[in-house]
Design goal:
43% helix, binds zinc ion, alpha/beta, seven-stranded mixed beta sheet, TIM Barrel
């Protein structure tokens, strides 16, 4: 009698375990499929360059409101409290040289000090820098080859370019400035951004475009919070997602 009960109990327990394993497998399978689909969605790589931690941090809530993740290409010798907060909120810290050096005008030694040596300072504090933006967008071909030994993606600053996400896994991509001085008014900004984002309509799945600005404020080489919101709205209308560089590497 007891043996029979034990047999039934073991049978039920095994049934439950098998059911849970099947459910877990199904869930993981669903998640992986969803990740692949999401990575294939067309989107925008939005970045903020230089070092404007106060204006950036003030707008973390705005990013969250629209589910937007961004990349901050910072000028720092080592990570600081801003970097910790940004990564905690799901954003990426990319690199932009220690002191915003024009790399085409420095010695090879200075090139190393500005663009490569700080990687170790970040790494020792738990940051893996994988994305690099050239200050002023100035570079020479040999630099790409050298820097790709350390970074996965290098970014310029001169053109709008729809590119395949594969280009972020070991290559150079361009970026387009959306700073205030390029637009006469918010309406003009909305029109121009709409046109740019429409270019992605005719591109293949997985195409992304890289946009950048600097501080979030009213200066020439900045973008106002109002215009950022316009960008987020126009992107949403077109079903475009905001990726960090790292997400596609
Ligand atoms: Zn810069």
């Amino acid at each position: 009698m007891n043996k029979k009960k034990i047999g039934i109990f073991i049978g039920i327990a095994m049934g439950i375990i098998l059911f849970l394993l099947a459910a877990l497998y199904g869930y993981r399978h669903y998640q992986i499929k969803r990740q692949v689909q999401e990575r294939n969605q067309k989107g925008i790589l939005l970045a903020f360059d230089d070092y404007n931690p106060d204006s950036w941090q003030e707008h973390f809530d705005l990013f969250d409101e629209y589910g937007v993740k961004v990349t901050f290409f910072v000028n720092l010798k080592k990570p600081d409290a801003f970097c910790a907060e940004a990564e905690k909120r799901g954003h990426e810290i990319g690199f932009h040289t220690a002191e915003h050096a024009n790399l085409t005008e420095v010695s090879e030694e200075e090139f190393y000090e500005q663009a490569i040596a700080p990687i170790e300072n970040f790494r020792s504090e738990g940051y893996e820098l994988t994305s690099f933006a050239y200050p002023f967008g100035y570079y020479e071909e040999w630099m790409n080859e050298e820097l790709l030994k350390y970074y996965k993606t290098l970014r310029g600053a001169w053109h709008f370019q729809g590119c395949y996400k594969e280009m972020l896994q070991g290559g150079f991509i361009e970026a387009y400035s959306i700073d205030n001085l390029h637009f006469e008014s918010d309406e003009h900004f909305r029109e121009e951004i709409g046109k740019l984002l429409d270019v992605l309509k005719d591109c293949d799945d997985g195409t992304v475009a890289s946009l950048f600005s600097h501080a979030i404020s009213g200066g020439d080489w900045c973008i106002t919070a109002d215009r950022l919101e316009i960008l987020f709205q126009e992107a949403k209308k077109r079903d475009l997602v905001f990726y960090t560089f790292r997400e596609l590497q």
